[in-house]
Specification:
By secondary structure, this protein is of the alpha/beta class. It has 19 helices and 11 strands.
Length: 450
């Protein structure tokens, strides 16, 4: 334990106190933590491995590990941690300058987002033939494409039969495409702008009642229109402001990914990355983001976030399902996108709406792209739900012997759905080769039977 304590003492020597910062001085925080750890009467229970990890993290900061990733024109205790640089104080004038510089950057990014006309590459619909086969459109019936996107599935539905189609999407860009499709197919398409949770009010305005829809199609996840536009902040490969709002600012009160990274604490970030991204290094990445935010600046662009995540996985090479190199930040981007857009709750709500709006023998078709989405769908179809919410645990009861009578068992296994495809369907190798973004797709179809 003595050698560890000496290591921390040497580290602290590289980090002079700055009394002008008060409680914001990281040097003081570190000293307090070291003192509390090593002066405790329970030092024998001190976690040596944890101490080593904390030491390595703090040492990277003390040696200004992030200097080359975040260039700044001003030195201070937050950016240059040598003895000479520690004597420089970050004056209020410099702080004001940095805040104004951030405002200018945000203004430029927003202007670019709102004024430039961007040509989108059309989204290639995934599992198109399989989805239409299970949906089985009939003449003079109503169908809802719950995730219009670029309209690939909607167009195929309209070509398959002389039916009526309602399109829904929360993205204004997709809504504009839906309105063009409505002009192309007069009196057959009703475009709606909104989230799943807004659908009941939208349908009420159009006079559409429950138990009147013959089929509903869900194609979850991001569309290529969102991924191919760097300014939307969804893309790992294109630098842009960390926005990630699928509504594209339609709700001014909706938080952006950048605001999440700037305001959430370490434990909150860990939960977001671990639960929504299933990221194995969630704790380390959350800690590094907080350190970078505290010592350097808020993470505001996709490129900065990728750099921070890569710094936590310096020697790691990840592969996707096609065994191609995959960015270390893929799961972090997924987690932030799901959190910002409240996607899992919206998916659950969409499944509830399908139960109420589909008529008897109405068809439900869903295409999901990761296990979190697929689990919600699977449990709704199987009837494994509690108060209209997908059961968060695999089984309703850990001990089936607690329930004896058949009537009670039947009640808890009751479901309005009957699965059409016995097993989940995935794209063929030929489709994956044509459209690599389809590699994770999973299709489920069900018939409403009551």
């Amino acid at each position: 334990m003595t050698s560890q304590y000496k290591k921390f003492v040497k580290l602290i020597a590289k980090w002079p106190l700055d009394a002008t910062k008060g409680e914001r001085d990281l040097g003081k925080v570190i000293r307090d933590k070291v003192k509390a750890a090593f002066e405790s009467t329970e030092r024998v229970n001190l976690d040596s491995e944890l101490c080593n990890r904390q030491y390595a993290s703090l040492n990277r900061l003390a040696d200004n590990h992030y200097k080359n990733k975040y260039k700044r024109s001003h030195t201070s205790t937050a950016t240059g941690l040598s003895t000479e640089e520690c004597n420089l104080m970050l004056s209020s004038e410099v702080l004001t300058y940095l805040k104004e510089e951030n405002k200018v950057t945000h203004t430029i990014l927003r202007r670019t987002h709102t004024t430039e006309l961007i040509e989108y590459k059309d989204h290639t619909p995934v599992l198109l033939e399989e989805a239409i086969k299970h949906l089985d459109p009939k003449d003079n019936e109503y169908y809802i494409d719950m995730t219009f996107g670029a309209g690939g599935h909607s167009r195929k539905i309209l070509e398959s039969s002389d039916c009526k189609l309602i399109t829904l999407d929360r993205d204004p860009t997709a809504f504009a495409k839906a309105r063009k499709l409505a002009v192309e197919y007069p009196n057959r398409v009703t475009p709606l702008l909104g989230r799943f949770s807004e659908l009941p009010n939208l349908l009420k305005e159009k006079g559409i009642k429950q138990m009147s829809i013959a089929g509903m199609l869900f194609d979850f996840g991001c569309s290529s229109m969102q991924l191919d536009n760097g300014e939307r902040g969804f893309s790992i490969s294109k630098n842009g402001y960390l926005d990630m709002r699928m509504d594209a600012g339609r709700d001014p009160n909706q938080i952006t990914a950048r605001e999440v990274l700037a305001t959430a604490n370490e434990q909150e970030l860990y939960k977001i990355f671990k639960i929504y991204g299933e990221e194995k290094k969630a704790a380390k990445i959350a800690q590094t983001i907080i350190q970078a935010r505290y010592m350097i600046k808020n993470i505001e662009t996709t490129e900065e976030l990728v750099d921070v995540v890569n710094s936590c996985c310096p020697d790691e090479i990840r592969l996707d399902k096609l065994q191609r190199p995959q960015s270390n930040a893929t799961k972090i981007f997924q987690a932030l996108r799901i959190f910002v857009n409240n996607e899992l709750n919206e998916i659950n709500y969409g499944m509830v709406l399908a139960k109420y709006y589909l008529k008897i023998h109405g068809r439900l078709v869903t295409i999901s792209f990761h296990s979190l989405e697929d689990t919600i769908i699977k449990r709704h179809i199987a009837g494994n739900i509690v108060n209209d919410v997908a059961n968060p645990v695999p089984l309703k009861y850990l001990s089936p012997t607690l329930v004896q009578d058949q009537e009670t068992i039947d009640y808890f296994l009751d479901t309005p759905w009957r699965a059409i495809n016995k097993h989940v369907e995935v794209p063929t190798p030929e489709e994956v080769e044509r459209n690599p973004r389809s590699r994770s797709a999973r299709l489920r179809a069900a018939l409403k039977i009551k």
